[in-house]
Design a protein that fits this description.
heterodimer; A: mainly alpha; B: mainly alpha; 2% strand
């Protein structure tokens, strides 16, 4: 079922990414920021995709920790890798925009700090898995679980001191031409994330099977 | 005394007894905390005075760094003697083992703080004792939050490779809310006036954080420590 869906999803995703630049080009200019605002179509979409990936990883980790099912671990690692890669896109496109709009590359604002901390947590997850030696999947799962629980705290705590980042309430107030383009990009990035996570979890499955075969051959 | 409290007490007592005989972790971490303060002093003191409210940051970084060192050493000792396995085999609840280790670490960190806090107050002319009770609350809640996550991760890293590097790599991103709340709360107390309500808000957040993270740690300790 999943394998049958994979090729159509890749084709649709590729077509959407090919068309997205034209839609962004055609979308109206924002009155105060002009051209710079157009990065928002990819930046906010990447942000949403990152949340999707981290959610997959967090839920997979919790499931793995308590049920010890190998499929849960596969989804957890796939989600974590996608979070780190897409998170990097968010953290690069953000400062590019901030430098033009706010005049600084980086500021310790709520959303930025929370995203950065979350990105660091999933990097820690991958580091433990990679260099922690045998049995480190379980340790990594605990890291992902704590990382997920952390995000609301960081969010709230930084909110207490100051904020600069546009609120999510911006989205419903978008002009018609912008709104369609924005949701199109969001769908494209969510699709990309889904495809990446599917592919990576399939790869992890093969790797697990190979490991089992090696162990069987040695006995 | 119930079985749980008894098991906790036995483990804490064992850790304190070993520490009282060698005093290894206490002396090394306390000295390390001093070294941290010294290094930061060179970075943030100009013309004999600290810049801004930097004392709060220096205090919490010294606590976090020395706490990481204490956590690492406390579990290295268990690993070295192959005694963690014995503790895991012992017929006690896993949460009791966690709480026992946590209390041992907390007492150790508190002993280091007894030295570091007055020293920071003295060296950076920081009025840390003007609201002594609130400051004590911030320190206690912050240390509990840091050690609650730290004890779980240090325990589960005992069997991992490159554990010395892994502990700080995992611990700092996850305990960042403790550091934020501790530093901000202390900085609010150092304000000439009007900082008390702000410090109370940060203290409330620290307590909330402690509750969530101790719950999560008790919940995950068993599956994580089972081979």
């Amino acid at each position: 079922m999943v394998k049958k869906l994979f090729v159509p999803l890749v084709v649709v995703g590729a077509a959407m990414f090919a068309y997205a630049p034209f839609m962004i080009l055609a979308a109206p200019y924002e009155s105060t920021m002009g051209l710079v605002q157009k990065i928002f179509y990819f930046h906010a979409s990447c942000g949403m995709a990152m949340f999707l990936a981290s959610f997959v990883s967090g839920v997979g980790s919790a499931a793995f920790l308590f049920t010890k099912k190998p499929w849960a671990d596969r989804w957890a690692v796939a989600g974590a890798e996608a979070t780190v890669i897409i998170g990097l896109l968010v953290l690069v496109t953000g400062p590019l925009w901030a430098h033009k709009a706010w005049g600084v590359w980086w500021t310790w604002d709520v959303r930025i700090t929370a995203t950065f901390v979350m990105w660091m947590t999933f990097n820690a997850y991958l580091l433990v898995r990679r260099y922690g030696g045998p049995g480190s999947e379980r340790l990594a799962a605990a890291v992902a679980l704590f990382g997920m629980a952390n995000v609301p705290f960081v969010y709230w705590s930084v909110n207490v001191w100051r904020t600069l980042h546009p609120k999510t309430s911006v989205i419903p107030t978008l002009q018609p031409g912008m709104r369609g383009t924005f949701w199109f990009c969001v769908c494209a990035f969510l699709l990309l994330t889904t495809v990446m996570v599917m592919l990576r979890s399939e790869l992890e499955k093969r790797r697990q099977e190979l490991d089992a075969l090696y162990l069987a051959a040695e006995d | 005394m119930t079985g749980f409290a008894r098991a906790v007490w036995v483990i804490t007592r064992k850790d304190l007894l070993v520490e009282a005989r060698t005093r290894e972790i206490f002396f090394t971490t306390a000295f390390f905390a001093l070294a941290c303060v010294l290094v930061f002093a060179f970075g943030f003191v100009q013309q004999g005075r600290a810049v801004g409210d930097v004392a709060a940051g220096i205090l919490w970084i010294a606590i976090a760094f020395s706490g990481t060192l204490a956590l690492g050493r406390a579990f290295e000792r268990e690993r070295h003697g192959e005694t963690l396995r014995a503790l895991l085999i012992a017929p006690i609840d896993r949460p009791a083992l966690y709480v026992g280790k946590l209390i041992g670490i907390l007492i150790l960190m508190a002993a280091v703080e007894v030295i570091v806090v007055p020293l920071v107050a003295l060296m950076f002319q920081a009025a840390l004792f003007d609201h002594a009770l609130l400051m004590l609350g911030l320190l206690a809640a912050g240390t509990v939050g840091f050690a609650a996550v730290g004890t779980l991760f240090a325990a589960m890293l005992v069997r991992a490779r490159s554990r010395d590097v892994m502990l700080p790599v995992l611990l700092y991103p996850i305990t960042v809310p403790v550091i934020i709340a501790g530093v901000r709360g202390t900085a609010a107390l150092l304000q000439p006036e009007g900082g008390v309500p702000m410090a109370r808000a940060w203290l409330a957040m620290l307590v909330f954080f402690d509750v969530v993270f101790i719950t999560l740690a008790l919940w995950t300790f068993e599956p994580v420590m089972t081979e």
